[in-house]
Specification:
By secondary structure, this protein is an alpha/beta fold. Helix content is 44%, strand content 17%. Strands 7-6-8-5-9-11 form a six-stranded mixed beta sheet. The protein has a five-stranded mixed beta sheet with strand order 2-1-3-10-4, sandwiched between helices. α4 packs across α13. The radius of gyration is 20 Å and the shape is globular. The two termini are 34 Å apart. The relative contact order is 0.17.
Length: 342
């Protein structure tokens, strides 16, 4: 039911935006078989000192250099163009040509996008990349073409960790009665429900204020997102868990993608490949640096779980796999476990 409601709402939004038209959409000049002149917009919701933004910058530099300036790439970080609530609709309307959202944002379209939320599935970025670069991951990324949206490449951010301003958390019982911000989705909601906590989906750009004002007691995120958005300023405790992940993918508008001639698309695709390589490398580096910066600031008490404590969480959350196997698919589980070496 949620999927049908979302799709109907999306269709209405797309029609309204398309009716208005957009002078801001990418436009290609006539240049025969040569590189088309155009402006490409890339919108995302996180800060500049994050793997996603560094990947976008690498993509921009490559495309602009290799096209001799015929293609201009404009990057809009920090929800400065579109935010979590409206970036997808604007991509579908070709008001922006690239976005790189958290994959769990699309669980209403396809529950298989819950893969990053599967508890303790992937221990490393490399395992997650192996899944999304594989046949099943590529199939999921391509499942939105009915909306005029095409998934191109997964950009990892890393494992998520828990912060809150109520108490140290080192067991499932410690979640009891607290409310956490999540990216949304069926699996994430069930994770917190299983531990006696509430969850609420809040746009990333509004999260600092929500934590500061006590709308929620805590949140889950990667080290780089916690540090770059200074969530430790409004939280007292951080538990290193790596229980779920933030993984992005770069999505484009299919009309825009198909409008490029071969010479243009070759440069844009190579730029995307360059951005992907940088984003994947930076995800590891920036998360390591972010954890050290959080330690140095000393604003939160950091709880590092023992193997026994992690196993307690694994056991508590294991029933979620059975609950969602039909929705996500046994074949998806099998591919994910193979990528994870399980």
């Amino acid at each position: 039911m949620k999927k049908h409601i979302f799709s109907a709402s999306l269709l209405m939004s797309v029609l309204a935006l398309a009716a208005c038209g957009s002078d801001e959409a990418a436009s290609g000049g006539e240049s025969g078989d040569g590189v088309q002149e155009m402006t490409i917009k890339f919108s995302h919701v996180v800060a500049e000192n994050t793997p996603k933004h560094q990947g976008a910058l690498a993509m921009k530099e490559y495309i602009e250099t290799e096209s001799d300036g015929a293609i201009e790439v404009e990057i809009y970080p920090n929800s400065s163009l579109f935010g979590d609530q409206d970036e997808y609709q604007n991509l579908a309307s070709n008001n922006v040509q690239f976005i790189a959202p958290d994959l769990t944002k699309f669980v209403g379209n396809n529950p298989q996008f819950n893969v990053p939320a599967l508890p303790f599935m992937f221990e490393t970025d490399e395992q997650a990349i192996e899944f999304w670069d594989g046949e099943k991951g590529q199939e999921i990324l391509g499942s939105l073409e009915g909306d005029g949206v095409l998934g191109l490449s997964m950009w990892p951010n890393g494992g998520k960790h828990i912060t809150n301003n109520e108490r140290p958390i080192d067991s499932p019982d410690d979640f009891q009665g607290l409310k956490f911000r999540t990216q949304g989705g069926q699996v994430l909601e069930e994770i917190y429900s299983a531990m006696g906590a509430g969850s609420e989906s809040i746009p990333f750009g509004e999260l600092y204020t929500a934590l500061d004002q006590g709308v929620v007691e805590g949140q889950e995120n990667t080290f780089s997102n916690i540090e770059s958005k200074k969530f430790d300023e409004v939280q007292d405790y951080m538990t290193i868990m790596n229980h779920t992940r933030v993984d992005y993918a770069v999505f484009t508008n299919t009309e825009f993608w198909e409008s490029m001639n071969d010479a243009t698309k070759e440069i844009v695709q190579a730029g995307l490949d360059e951005g992907t390589a940088v984003a994947r490398e930076e995800a590891i580096t920036l998360n390591e640096e972010a954890l050290e910066l959080i330690r140095e600031r000393g604003l939160v008490e950091i709880i590092e779980l023992t193997p026994e404590q992690i196993e307690e969480f694994r056991t508590a959350l294991e029933p979620i796999y059975d609950e969602f196997e039909e929705q996500i698919g046994a074949d998806v589980y099998e591919a994910a476990r193979e990528a994870a070496g399980q």
